[in-house]
Amino acid sequence: xQSPEWQPVLNPIANLVYAARxxxxxxxxxxxxxxxxxxxxxxxxxxxLKEAKxxxxxxxxxxxxxxxxxPTWPIV
Length: 76
Description:
Layout: H1 12-18, E1 27-29, E2 32-36, E3 39-40, H2 45-62, H3 66-69
Antiparallel strand pairs: 1-2, 2-3
């Protein structure tokens, strides 16, 4: 659940159904290696994922969606 396509994780079941997917091992763009062996080299991935999670939560809160997208059962 730490990969980019899962962020933000506001409803893990919805993320599993709609966002979970396989990915590439290596990405090269314009001759520059951006990702090798599933490790992102071009940005600070942990920082970007943390920021995506925080921004997603703020957007959901401001839009009044937080309670509507939260699962109705406890997530442990």
